[in-house]
Amino acid sequence: MTEDQESGFTAGEKKCHEHLMKMLDAFMELPREHPRELAEVEVAVHIIQGLLATRIVRRSFPSYWPTYAEGQGDD
Fold first, then answer.
1. For residue 14, what are the CA distances in angstroms to 11, 18, 36, 47, 51?
2. How many angstroms separate the Cα of 39 from the Cα of each of 18, 29, 44, 45, 62?
3. What is the pLDDT of residue 8?
4. What interhelical angle do 11-29 and 37-60 show, nearest 10?
5. Which one, of 12, 37, 35, 16, lies nearest residue 27 by Cα?
6. pLDDT score recorded for residue 72
7. End-to-end CA distance of the chain
8. Whole-angstrom Cα distance, residue 50 to residue 66?
9. Per-residue pLDDT of the chain (75 residues; tens, 9 = 90+)
10. Sequence ranges of the domains in the chain
């Protein structure tokens, strides 16, 4: 697992973020159908960016920000 020196992302995480930014760019080109939709998309993008950033933090500080195997920690 090699991390990108600029972002801290793994290759897979960087790919996810690049797709997220492409989605945002494409969404910005759509005509607005509701006054709140752009704000809601921006919140969703920030939530996903936060999830990706948390993965970097878990790798950097694993004893404080533990990682759980799939199926664990769902309580």
1. 5, 6, 28, 16, 12
2. 20, 15, 9, 10, 33
3. 95
4. 170
5. 37
6. 57
7. 29
8. 16
9. 778 888 999 999 999 999 999 999 999 999 999 999 999 999 999 999 999 999 999 999 999 998 987 665 544
10. 11-60
